[in-house]
Specification:
Elements: H1 3-11, E1 18-19, E2 22-23, H2 24-37, H3 42-50, H4 69-76, H5 78-89, H6 92-95, E3 106-107, E4 114-115, H7 119-139, H8 141-157, H9 164-173
């Protein structure tokens, strides 16, 4: 795990914020560990660890205001911070229906702007989304009961943007062969 990212997470209080399965910090570590098990590249691993710095559409508690992106860039590097920003900025209701499509639009919930992610941006976003949601489904039976079927459909639609190891994890957690 990235020591500078861990230090910033601790400084921002991630270990004292409640989150399904314990604390936000424990969730972030688990997501990064999942990505590591899937042989994710270093920028995506760092993003997995810091994906909640700016809050998300599903977990609005921000550790750092989005106007202070330079602080996160300093800790994790430009590429990883860009992944974190895209993840945090995602307007899920708008973006998820077209997420599997190569030309599916992405809406930034902070600015309202839309764009079409590059193939790498889409792969990173899908991989991080799947790791995040799988962790929540594993540690929280209530979330699994409430959102499991919809997430399974989303993951299946996005299969082509997901690594083989990520897809195997989906199949295992969702108990499909």
């Amino acid at each position: 795990m990235s020591e500078p990212v861990m230090k910033l997470l601790v400084k921002c209080g991630a270990e004292s914020i409640e989150h399904p399965g314990g604390t936000l910090l424990s969730h972030l570590k688990r997501v990064s560990a999942l990505l590591d098990g899937w042989a994710a590249r270093p920028a995506l691993l760092a993003a997995g660890l810091g994906h909640a710095f700016y809050g998300t559409d599903g977990f609005p508690t921000a550790l750092i205001d989005v106007s202070d992106r330079a602080r996160v860039r300093e800790a994790m590097g430009e590429e990883a911070e860009a992944i974190v920003y895209r993840y945090a900025a995602c307007d899920r209701k708008f973006t998820y229906p077209g997420l599997a499509d190569a030309d599916g639009p992405f809406r930034d919930r902070f600015t309202g702007e839309t764009d079409i992610p590059t193939p790498q941006q889409r792969r990173d976003f899908v991989e991080l989304t799947v790791a995040n949601e799988l962790d929540l489904l594993i540690v929280n039976p209530e979330m699994r009961a409430r959102y499991g079927e919809a997430l399974d459909r989303l993951f299946t639609r996005c299969r082509e943007h997901l690594s083989e190891r990520g897809w195997l994890a989906v199949r295992k957690v969702m108990r499909r062969s």
